């Protein structure tokens, strides 16, 4: 199926970027491929970041080869009874500890996949929890500085039709984090309304019908992040 890492990597690339490689940090398609530069064979000419097909996926920062990942994902998704990490250990020739981590990461990514997603249109926003109220509003005037130190970020999504809201603790307000939050909570192709934060600019690349000039911002943020959502916010988890 995958004789070597190169074959597996090429498969991941074709799955992730069917229309050409784009930068997972800023969304730019102005990307230089440097096949000999492992483990990060792409460079974004706009934000100057190096990346690979693993960047900001469940394989992020993993030293394991693409072949092992591809086979592990295949084994786990095709087995009806589930696959033990012992089987991964034996079949893939990795240590038991590595096999456990593989299985854990793959299951973790499925937990999000199998959750109910909103069909849209949805409204998405994020805010800082903690710190002074004045600080929370400052970031709307600034282009930089959303990642204030010492404060937790919570992203929220609201389904306009049902009024249901889902909020989740996220590690940052960067494009990879906010994009994957939307991809985890809204169905592919959904209409998504946000403010103009750069973190949402690559949503259209994932097929979302994205509008970033939404005048709902204030009232929505107030509703989503006021006390009514505290029970959700308290069940925080990292994406
Ligand atoms: Zn970039």
Write the layout of secondary structure elements.
Layout: H1 5-16, E1 31-33, E2 42-44, E3 50-51, H2 66-78, H3 85-92, H4 96-113, E4 122-129, H5 133-138, E5 152-159, E6 165-170, H6 175-185, E7 191-193, E8 209-211, H7 217-225, H8 230-234
Parallel strand pairs: 4-7, 7-8
Antiparallel strand pairs: 1-2, 2-3, 4-5, 5-6
The structure holds zinc ion.
Zinc ion (ZN) binds at residues 23, 25-26, 28, 44, 46-47, 49.
Features:
about 35% helix, about 240 residues, 8 helices, three-stranded antiparallel β-sheet, Nucleotidyltransferase, domain 5, alpha/beta, single chain
- Side by side, the strands of the main sheet go 6-5-4-7-8
* CATH hierarchy, class of the largest domain: Alpha Beta
> Number of helical runs?
8
| Cofactors, ions, other ligands | zinc ion
**What's the alpha carbon Rg, rounded to whole Å?**
19 Å
Runs in which pLDDT lies below 50 for 5 or more consecutive residues are 131-149, 216-239
What portion of residues is helical? 25-40%
Shape: globular
- In total, the number of strands is 8
CATH second-level architecture of the largest domain: 2-Layer Sandwich
Mean pLDDT: 76
> Could you say what the CATH topology of the largest domain is called?
Nucleotidyltransferase, domain 5
Order of helices and strands: HEEEHHHEHEEHEEHH
Number of domains: 2
Helical/strand content category: alpha/beta
Distance between the termini: 30 Å
Strand content: 15-25%
